[in-house]
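Hi L.,

As promised, fumarylacetoacetase:
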Amino acid sequence: MTLIKSWVTSANDADHPFPLNNLPYGVFSIGDDEPRCGVAIGDMILDMPAAQDAGLLGFGDAFDVPYWNDLMDMGPVAWTTLRARLTDLLAEGSKDQTTATPFLVPQSVATLHMPLAVSEYTDFYAGMQHAKNMGAILRGSPDLPANWLHIPVGYNGRASSVVVSGTDIHRPNGQMKAPDADMPSFGPTKRLDIELELGAIVGTGCDMGTPITVDQADEMIFGYVLLNDWSARDIQGWEYQPLGPFQGKAFGTTISPWIVTAEALSPFRAPTPVREKQLLPYLNSTKDGLYDIELEVLMQPAGAETATSLSKTNYNRMYYSASEQLCHHAVGGCGMSSGDLLGSGTISGPTPDEYGSLMEKSWAGREPFKLDTGETRSFIEDGDTLTLRGAARGDGYTIAFGDCTTTILPAHKFPV
Ligand SMILES: O=C(O)/C=C/C(=O)CC(=O)CC(=O)O
Ligand SMILES: [Ca+2]
Ligand SMILES: [Mg+2]
């Protein structure tokens, strides 16, 4: 696959995040206008309801709403048809260039919103290096849990606190207990952390009681976003046994603003690694389930001119794919819906410069790391801005996600 040239010329740079090969789906507003669906192309956004009203798309009124769920619900044939139509419309030499030009608005003047209504959110634990690191840090041994090589381990999270990039998050208050203390205490977390993840968006659901194969699950996935699974390690450490994370991860999950479709990412498919234990047959698949997506974590303290790059890794390092996770999720009878969000699990490579959480980077505070400003960090301080980036690199073009950025504000005073 090579670059498909667009008459929106900014889209034709090899490093531009939004070439015609990408066409990611977002929700935007200008000034006080109502948020509506838009497609990123180069430095511009195609106003979807306006293009539809002008007869350029032929898709009914799926776009005059502040989310992409209506299109997602229509299923893979509709997804492919729309993408083909948009590609024709925006390609160099399109007969509709003059008609479509007024429906492009500069990204620089737009506010981006949540691209979908998240129906439910599940987070997995599918990065082997991360699981080994967390075991070593928290439980004194890098040995994987007995189930790990057989099950994509996960927990049900909260859809209510999934927010879009650019939304500030307050340091959470919660209950924690220092190992040497007699009693727990309540207050702002002292161990605020990120988790670098990829979020898979379920486009078409499946009914309760209807198991699906991994290949069917693959067809149900509409696209992907970057996902930061904010974690308060001290709250988590006190609450997590025996039922898993609760308040330590419920205060916020940030996603990037553009849904990069599975179709746009298809040239970058990558295999899951060789299985250390053969998976049970229900988890078999015929397709490569991962993607070659370069990922980066950056941190910028308040007042600093630039951000420090903390980690670089790749989504192709995961052990389980989103389609395996989705199959496992539904196999016992759990219905899945359009707008379900599945977190990949923290993505960490083998060395500290590939670790996807600060817990690992600072080894629970035992080995603080340096920022370009000269400061050191173990966890996040108030005023720090954290950014996740992701890009798949093709022959003369890039498919990127747009930054997933959050600034951390001080904790609310509680009790007041
Ligand atoms: O190993 C643990 O006790 C905790 C692990 C996590 O907090 C990670 C988690 O949320 C799952 C993941 O992102 O991989
Ligand atoms: Ca997580
Ligand atoms: Mg959450």
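Residues 123, 125, 127, 130, 134, 138, 195, 197, 229, 231, 240, 245, 345-346 surround LGMQ2O6W (ligand 1) (CB under 6 Å).

Thanks again for sending the construct details.

K.
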